[in-house]
What does this fold into?
Amino acid sequence: MYDKQIWKDEIPDLTKPILDANGKQKTDPQTGRSLFELVQEGTRITSTRLNKMEIGIGGAHDLVEMLAKELGGNFVASSNGVIGFQFSTKDLSVSWTTGIAYVGGRRFEVLAGSLPLNPTQGQYLYLDLDGKIKKTTSEAIAATALLLWYVATDASGVITSTDKRSTVNIAEILKKIENIDVDIPDASLTVKGITKLSSAVDSMSETQAATPKALKTINDSLTTHKADNAKHVPHLGTTTNIGNAYSVTTTETIAANQKFTVKVNAASTGAATLNVSSIGSAKAIKKPGGTDATLKVGVYTFFWDGTSFQLLGEGGETLTGDAIAANVLASKTFYKDNPETKLTGTMVNRGSIGTQNLTLQNQEYTVEQGYHDGTGKVKATYIAKGKTALGNTMATLGGDITVTGLDFTPRVIRIRSASSSFPKPITVMHRGVQDFSGISHDIFGTLDAGGTTGYGGDSTVNSRYTITSDGFTATIRTNNIPVYWEAEE
It folds into this structure.
């Protein structure tokens, strides 16, 4: 393929001369012309480019000769509808007019001329491969070039002449082209070639080409579909608003049970309405559940049911949660009553407090506010608040037990019989309150609340006792028996 050279003119800016260091305008050292800054740089004429042109011209000439040889062979060409090489004779000479002919694939433009003839001889006039008209008595020799005329002479002149010129017209050339056997492959997605036409509009073929008829069928279907708005979702444009009242102007006619989209220009602050120009009045915008919708800036798809515009893709449920941030773990998010407002919890995650042991009477453990994982424990063991005194004494007449000289005021007092004959009389006094709760102690064993008969329970304990600053006095009904006592601060 011939690679064309794009030629550009050099366009100087005559208002901007190129100056040398002395302020004088520079000149071209080869041509001597003054130099200016260029608006457009021109294409330089070089021997390389000129030779390239010659090669291209020569190639085109060779191609024409090749085509002439392959398509027409040796023939006389017509020029402006006139076929050259018209012959005339006089005496023993022949003359011809100017003509154009192709011989051996080469084109010759032959000027008018003449040639002497031999007497008493049959002669063939032909255009040879060197572009000259010659004569010969051999038809075979003449046929190797371009045979033009045959003449027969006697001693004084031409007695007969026959036109042997071969001409080729366009119809004959086209016929020859049709008969050329060229191996052109079938076209595919990767190979150029011959393609079969098809008017089918549902074909999956990748080796056939669509006809104008097929394209028209598809275009007609698209035109029909475009006119039927109910089968697709038209975009009506961008709304304008006054408060929560929105409107949009459109050339589309929106019918009942039709979908469409609009771009909302501003967020609403409450229940919104929309007025589509083809409907003519403001209508409510509803969620699928029937509740009023609020709008944000963006594109929405609506369904016009003839009464209101229903948002598509919008849930109809309403959130009714009552949790607050303090009820939800810190860093966890939740929604309360507004699906557009995400809240973050603030409850501290305490994890596990482990096992907390209480080691003193009336000791407390404060459980910090927050989330606990349920594995923590608070374990209490009965331990005296402070000092403990132990002793034994003999109950005197009337069952009185008196202990003094303690360096603390008793808070809890335990008394038990030391006699194996009377094992049950037990009492625990706690700052004036009798307690039969069955408390366990290492020294006294199980403090049994006793029964209701004999020496146990209520029958063995008197309601008279006194706790002093350094001891206590208790009265039991059994006397003259040894008892163990224990006092705790």
